[in-house]
Design goal:
By secondary structure, the chain is mainly alpha-helical. It has helices at 21-38, 41-45, 51-71.
Length: 72
Amino acid sequence: MGLQRSTERSDHIINAVAVDRTLYRLRNLVERCFNKLKNARRVATRYDKSAESFLAFIDITSIRLWLRYLST
């Protein structure tokens, strides 16, 4: 007795979830951007005391990432 392959379609029903590819790509892009921002240790550990200086460093880090993107 070996494994028997079923030829009936009802045995192989998969509950597929509809995925909007455009929305998924944008979500993935934002998630990758946050991960790149977290590579800056100062952002990941939040050394800055005030929210203003923290947001300023996020701006600086974002500009660095953008310039790196432009140079490739």
